[in-house]
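Entry 14. Structure prediction run on the chain below.
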Amino acid sequence: MPVQQLPEFDLALAVAAGRLDAGELSECHGAVCGMLCRHPQYGGSEALRLLAELELVRNPELELRDFLVSLHEATASQIGDAQMRFSLWLPGDEEPLEYRTRALAQWCSGFLAGLGFGHNADLDNLSEDIEGVLADLQQIARAETDPETDPETEETALVEIIEYIRVVALMLREELRPAAPRDSVH
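Output returned:
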């Protein structure tokens, strides 16, 4: 089954028409990803409710609402993909490093908020490894660029951190997903 592609980021900025900036769009995606890690059955209406509770998007106009629902659908398709074709929704590589770093920090903040959406009983028994990666995400959510560091080094670090976060999200999805009836315990 083909995995859905995330909507074009620049198109989303145009549709948001100043109501959301790039960091906030990334934060919306992070929140939806976090929510889907714990509640893969949640649909677009729950995603819109989450975004409203986070005060990212309240009462969006029809075009933005439809866009956010399609973002949820594509995200659900990607995060549940057995071939792990999941990607983070961030500004493009042509954007300044500081801009992309800020958007990544906001993505992590949204992810953590989305992960906490709903009841929290299943978050009480996380493995030590998962607790460690959640602490990493909290730290990345506060990330900033360092003007003293070589831009090429910072660019390489950003690419590596994005890949780390992508893997972390998939690990969390696996750890938190409800057992399917055909799953067996050995």
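The chain has a mean pLDDT of 88.
Filed with the rest of this week's runs.
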